[in-house]
What does this fold into?
Amino acid sequence: MINLKIFLFQCFVLFALHGFSQNNKKLLGQELDNMLNQYHNNVQLNGTVLVAKQGEVLYQKSFGKADISKNIQNTLDTKFSIGSLTKSFTAIAVMQLYEKGLLKLHEPIKTYVPELNTLLGKLTLHQLMKNISGLPVHLNRITNLEYRDITSEELIALYNDKATLAFEPGTEYSYSNLNYQLASIVVEKISRLSFETYLNRYVFSPVDMINSGVEKTHNHPYDKAKGYDIINGKLVKSERNYMAYAKGGGDIYTTAIDLLKWDQALYSNSIISNNSKNILFDGNPDIYDGYGYGFKVKYYNRHSATKGKIVRHGGSMYGYICNINRYLDDQVTIIILGNIRPFPIMEINNTIEDKLYKFCILPCK
It folds into this structure.
């Protein structure tokens, strides 16, 4: 028979701990509100911020307008372009095919894309994904972009005609969108699906990312936030983005809620194996700028004698900036999606991080 006093004491302890947690959550929310509202009032934040631990949302709030001309507010369901955060999804697609034995990471990509010339064909997926190929940063550095949808075959012809290598592959690190454009084309060739269809079928749908997709030049989601540039302290509708040229490197849109679903799926084997995650998240800050495969790797203080691993990526394009920080050892996530550019997104992330230490959501310093 259970001792009544012990049972009541246990109930009291559980209630007290729950109350403390909820109180801390409320105080955290108040401090984040005060801090983030100040950034917003200074035209340094417009978008959505979400903070979670082990899948539990600790804070979520949207700031400013999704469409100034129509007076539409940003909400938790508002879609944002995520620019180079797309690369993390491309890397996952590559690793899914690797798990199935359909490609090799150190094989020349001409094996999978025979149309490539000899110079580009000798590159490997490993070199592309680590950003050590020597390819140019952006296509607009080597050609004039056209505002239209272009095919993968046209992109391949453009690479063959215009792209050169700045150094011997594997000897240096240089961030390049072309790396992930080529990787996405490899995904298409092997899967015999468009990059958009592949992601919908094997990444978005399994994670229930119902508000995410690949944007086309002339096919924009109707409820995506408009992008704005900050000019002389005011928001001005941004220049258009050439989405067809961002293929695999910057053409995804999503919401903070969908990103949290994806974040949580990466703690399981639902879309990718632990072995593949070890490869994705294998980065040393002193080597190749800490770049893994589609994720940047750095470390954070857990306790005085231990370090935790952060895997993160950001994205920036006309009118949009985003960032996701995933603190793996504590399963903490900070997501910031913005529809203005520029704004101090990493400063905001680091200030949020300081608050998480203060409230011991990250291990107390």
